[in-house]
Amino acid sequence: MKLMNHIICLSFVFGSFIGIAQEKPQAPKSNNQPTIMVIPFSREGVDLRTEIENNDLVRIGITKVKEAFDKRGVNTIDLRAKLKQVGNTAAIQSDQKSSIKDEVINSSGADIYVEVETSPNYSSSGNSVTLIMTAFDAFSGESYANKVITSPKFYTTSFEKLVEKAAETEVPNLLNTIQEKFDDVLLNGRTITIRVGILENSKIKMDTEVDKKGNFLSDIIEDYIEQKSFKNKYHLQGATDNQITFDIVKVPMKDDEGNLFRISRFAADFRKFLRNNEIQCTQTINGNNIIFSIK
Amino acid sequence: MKVLTLYFSIVFILFFSSCAKKITVNQQQSVDYYRNGKVNYISSNKGLLTLSSENVGENINKAAHFAEINALENILFKGIQGSSQEDPIISDEISAFRENNLALKSLIFENEYKLYLTESLVLETYKGNPMTVVQKVTFDIPALRKYLEKNNIIRKFGL
Fold it and tell me: Which of A198, A184, A271 has its CA nearest to residue A230?
């Protein structure tokens, strides 16, 4: 009887052990969904508004590509609504110098913009459409993915259908390539460049000792970048008396709270670090480039 | 003691036989499933991906079943050239099986994939031992992707 009790107990223990091993709960894999805006490719001197208003095929192209993104559950921003918004702002701020494309991208809040180019191909064996899609990081301008597809040939002038077919086939591949880039960025960090220069009337130089240990200014800067870069990955392009340039500094995609990492925060922290060493500087952020000028 | 030994033997046999991935048809004339690359793109329409897939089996039903699994595994782990799924849906097969063994096994080897299979027709058969079948199969890719996302096998699009 005792033996039977032992066996029953063992069965429960063994059974629950197998259960635990096989039904290990998965931690939810959180992710922020980026917003995408689809815009037409515009040649030099032609702005977005003209391109979209004067070219039917472009209008169809961006609509079909946007639709394909929507079907995949991706957040998209409507270009025409943004153009209208920018148009209203432009009427108020008539002295603006940037192009409508820059305005739309900057004001949209899109993380990625996809440029779409469509061109009809006419031939005696049928007509087709070539669709070119290029995805860019809206912040840095870095290209994420390119896809070119030519639709099958049909004896038709209904290019809308041909564009739809091409978009339907190639948008999933475009999204997969973008996702691969995201995965790589999550694993290896995002690249920014940092240049620290010294203004002409400054009293210090890169080889000035700035602490009691006898470290040069360039040493403490490099040590800081090494400590703060993602997985300590950085590359020092060069250093002179007046300038030190890091052409690769990896920063994380997300901060500790899981929000998207802001480069302005990185710049502010660096500026505060110099200030703690009694060095004052100004900062300029342009895309993924940060320039510090030490006074 | 003998009872205890017998008990553990039974438990071990049951445990290991339940973990085996191999699909066998019949002990005498069994044909094991193996994945091959004989999967070709036919067409796609509104997220439905149609492919031809070739595999072998002891009889036509088993060969057709293995061809379906073969097509699915190619979609998941290899990608289908010329289609809207040129890249595999699951980029790292080994880690996916390591982390989500139950859900993946259930999908591929326990017929759950049939929920996402909208069409399966025999295109060609070649008699022999084993029998070869070319099967035309259509998978609902968005629904399949949702299953994989829900089970944390793949991430949703995003960062």
Answer: A184
What is the rounded CA–CA span in Å between residue A123 and residue A157?
11
> Encoding tokens for residue B99?
């982390």
Bridge partner list, A195: A245, A291
Condensed to tens digits (0 to 9), the pLDDT of residues B45-88 reads 888 999 999 999 999 999 999 999 999 999 999 999 999 899 99
Residue-level pLDDT at B14: 54
Mean pLDDT of A74-92: 73
Q: How many alpha carbons lie under 13 Å from residue B158 in its C-beta half-sphere? A: 19
DSSP H helical ranges for chain A: 2-22, 48-54, 56-71, 79-92, 100-108, 159-188, 217-228, 263-276
B130-151 average pLDDT score? 94
Using CA atoms, how far residue B39 sits from B35, B51, B113, in Å, is: 10, 7, 17
List CB contacts (< 8 A) between A147 and chain B: none
The answer to whether the Cβ–Cβ distance between A182 and B142 falls below 8 Å is: no
Could you report the per-residue pLDDT of A175-186, keeping only the tens digit for each?
889 888 888 888
| B85 touches A: beta carbon within 8 Å | yes
Quote the minimal CA–CA distance from A172 to chain B in Å.
6
Q: How far apart are CA B117 and CA B137, in angstroms?
A: 7
From first CA to last CA, the distance across chain A in angstroms is: 88
Give SS3 for A190: strand
Calpha distance B105→B101 (Å, rounded): 6
Contact B53, B135 (CB under 8 A): yes
Integer Rg of chain A from CA = 27
Measured between CA atoms, the residue of chain B closest to residue A261 is: B159
Q: What residues contact residue A249 under an 8 Å CB cut-off, 6+ apart?
A: A191, A192, A193, A194, A225, A229, A233, A234, A235
| Per-residue confidence band for A25, with pLDDT thresholds at 50, 70 and 90 | very low
Nearest by CB to B102, from A22, A73, A170: name it. A22
Contacting A residues, span 133-192, partner chain B, CB-CB under 8 Å = 168-173, 175-180, 182-183, 185-186
Q: Which residues contact A112 (CB under 8 A, 6 or more apart)?
A: A34, A35, A36, A37, A135, A136, A137, A138, A144, A178
| pTM, entire model | 0.72
